[in-house]
Specification:
homodimer; about 210 residues; alpha+beta; six-stranded mixed sheet; two-stranded antiparallel sheet
Chain lengths: ~210, ~210
C-alpha cells in the first residue's frame, strides 16, 4: 500500500528518499540506492552516539566539483553545474575516548564472500596511513541477504587487498574468514549498528 | 601582465581560481574569495604533512544539498541543481601521532582584534564535543594585514565565545590576548603554515 499525503502525493520515508530527484538512465538510480539502507543505519548510529556524547563521528560530505554557481539577487547561491568527485578518504571519521576513529561501511548481496571491488586503492592507502598514525581503523561489512554486519579490522583487510595482486589473485574475502577474523555486530533499535562496544574490546586488547 | 594559454585563455594559478565560475552579484565573489589564500596555505601544509607521513589531515568537502541530477547516457552524472549547506563541523580533522586533531582556520583584516563572528555556534559545539573526547582542538587565526598566524586553543576560544553572551558582551578577541594565550606560527615555504611543531609542544605539556 502506498501511503499518501492529503494532497495526494505519496509518502516516502527517509529510507526511500535518495535525496535527489533523478532523470535519465534508470540503472544509475538503482545503483545509487544500493547501500542507502546501510548508510542510513550508520548515520542513525553515529547521530545517536553524538547526541549521547559517547563518540563524535561524522560522515564526510559527498565531494563535489563545482563548475558553475548562480548568485540570484535576494536568494541563496544556486549551483547549476557540478560533478561527483571520488572521495580521497573513507566516509566516516571522528573521535572516541581520545582515539582517532576512521571507517568505511560497505555492503554486498553475496552470501558467501565479500568482493574487494567495493573498495578503492586510495581508500586503502588512506586507511593504511591512519593505521600507521595509531588510529582505530576498520570497515563495517554488511551482507544484505543475510542481514549480518561485521566489524573487520583494516589491518586484516589490507592482507586480502594486497594478496589479490599477488599469488592468491582472490578478488573477495570468504565469509568464513570474516566470521573468524571479524566481530559480528547484532543490529539493535538505537543505535542500529552498535559498533562502540566492539571498539571497546579492541582498545582493551590493545589490538 | 596576464599570462595566456596558446588558445588565448588567460592563465590562472590555483590561488586565483575560486574553483567556480561566478555569475551575478559581484559582492558574493569578493566575499567568497576572502580567505582563499589562507585556505590554500593550510591545504598545502596538510598535503605536505600527508606526503611526508607526518600527519593524516584532510579538509572536509564543502557540504552541498543536491536537488537535481542528470544522468546523460555515456557520460558522467551531472548535478544541475544544488545549494550550499552549513557545515556541522570544522573544516579540518585527522590524526597525528595517535592523537585526534580537529581545527578551523579563519582570517580577519582587522589589526587589533579577531571578530568572533567568524565562528558559528555549531562549530563551537562540535569543537567542545571533540575536546570532551580528548582531541587536540584549535583554531588558526590569521591577521591578513599583519601577515600573522596564531595557533589558538579551542578551550581559550570557548571562554571568549561564551563571554560574548554574558557580562563582557565583547564580540572579538584582542590581539594582545591572542599573543599571550596563543602561539605564533612563522610562515615557511613547505609547509607554509608549520603547525605540527606547535602541536608537539601541546602534547609535551599535556595541555
Amino acid at each position: 500500500m502506498v501511503i499518501r499525503y492529503p494532497n495526494g502525493k505519496p509518502y516516502h520515508t527517509n529510507r526511500d528518499k535518495p535525496g535527489a530527484k533523478k532523470q535519465g538512465a534508470k540503472k544509475s538510480l538503482t545503483h545509487k540506492n544500493r547501500g542507502m539502507r546501510l548508510e542510513d543505519d550508520i548515520n542513525q548510529s553515529i547521530e545517536y552516539y553524538r547526541k549521547t556524547n559517547q563518540a563524535i563521528i561524522h560522515k564526510k560530505p559527498t565531494p563535489v566539483q563545482i563548475v558553475n554557481v548562480d548568485y540570484p539577487k535576494r536568494s541563496a547561491a544556486k549551483i547549476t553545474e557540478a560533478y561527483f568527485r571520488k572521495a580521497s578518504t573513507t566516509d566516516y571519521n571522528g573521535i572516541y575516548k581520545g582515539h582517532y576513529i576512521d571507517f568505511e561501511a560497505k555492503e554486498t548481496k553475496n552470501k558467501t564472500s565479500f568482493p574487494l571491488k567495493n573498495f578503492h586503492q586510495h581508500q586503502i592507502d588512506h586507511m593504511k596511513q591512519c593505521v600507521d598514525q595509531g588510529g582505530i581503523v576498520f570497515v563495517i561489512l554488511y551482507f544484505s541477504k543475510l542481514q549480518k554486519h561485521y566489524y573487520f579490522k583494516a589491518k586484516d583487510l589490507f592482507i586480502y587487498w594486497d594478496n589479490q595482486f599477488k599469488e592468491s589473485k582472490k578478488k573477495s574475502i570468504p565469509l568464513s574468514e570474516i566470521k573468524k577474523l571479524g566481530i559480528a555486530i547484532q543490529i539493535e533499535i538505537s543505535p542500529r549498528i552498535p559498533f562502540l562496544p566492539v571498539i571497546d574490546k579492541i582498545i582493551q586488547n590493545n589490538d
